[in-house]
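Here is one chain, start to finish.
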Amino acid sequence: MKFKFGLLPRIIVAIVLGVLIGSIATENIVRIFATFTSIFGNFLNFVVPLIILGFIAPGIAKLGKGSGKLLGISTLVAYSSTVIAGVFAFVAAMFILPGFMEGRALTSLDDPEHALAQTFIDLEMAPLFGVMSALILAFLLGIGMASTGSKTMIAFFDEFQAIIEKTISVIIIPLLPFYIFGIFANMAYGGAVMEILSLFGIVFVLIIILHWLMLLLQYSTAGTLKKKNPFVLLKTMMPAYFTALGTQSSAATIPVTLRQTRKTGADERIADFSVPLFATIHLSGSTITLVSCAIGVVLLTGQSPDFGSFFPFILMLGITMIAAPGVPGGAVMAAIGLLQSMLGFDETMVALMIALYMAQDSFGTAANVTGDGALANIVDRFTSGRKV
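Its structure:
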């Protein structure tokens, strides 16, 4: 059997090598790594608006095709779960992380005072349009395609989305370990890496705990509404959880999620409709990860996260991650624009977010798909006996 060296092991190796080499390398060598990360970061900034347009426009257009009330209720339940997960993550992270981060904050992750190596060249790649322009255009076109049923436009955006997904899976994802290697080599050279590595461990443990607490909340709600034992429901969905850990894809796990959701007692018609839909629009696990990681990175820069800034970010995450591609890290790729435009993240902060997210991407996906079973039962309860 052929051994596959997955993305997560490659990222771990990249971090370790970056720390080791950055600690002993000369400035000119580190400048080579810094130059690559700068060019790749600029390319990422160029692609981000296209990712937003390519994901959201066709995602909204396809949500317009469905069966009336069932589609509306399913979408509302999924979006509510995602937003609640984000708020829950913000409260928990703000309660726990500041105490661990006290005294470890850096003045700025890319401040020259930290002696980070500079690049040899600065290659500008200006985006075709800004992030907010991309969001507005995506909403406008998505809603327009849904309301008019434009087959030509939908076909165009399906192909455009396929091109963007190919760009992510063939160019961005394979180069991410080298990008992260360069970032950590530069940080190790500047002496800022130990604070960052300590943040990784703390945030990783926190995220896994929050995932399971969110699943308990989802299944407690479903169990109460359906008058069933939530722990029995959750146990029934465990095959979907462990399948998602291996595949790192909600879409690839749909057959197992659907089978186990039916076993929980959800109406077969409801399950058949809602589970594939939730695989696209329900991302509570990914939202917990993104919000927790973002708070950790903000605290690392010495800033104080506030709910007034993060709540609009959470609301937009629930929309922006719609139809994120079925490749590892799709959710964080879709969220980069929001991190930059709404939270003011710079290139280095974005790189840390990517590294943090990728380190537990499979756990976030597992939380997403396992929660889909609870949400299908909630939708079943609200649509039972109704014409939908």
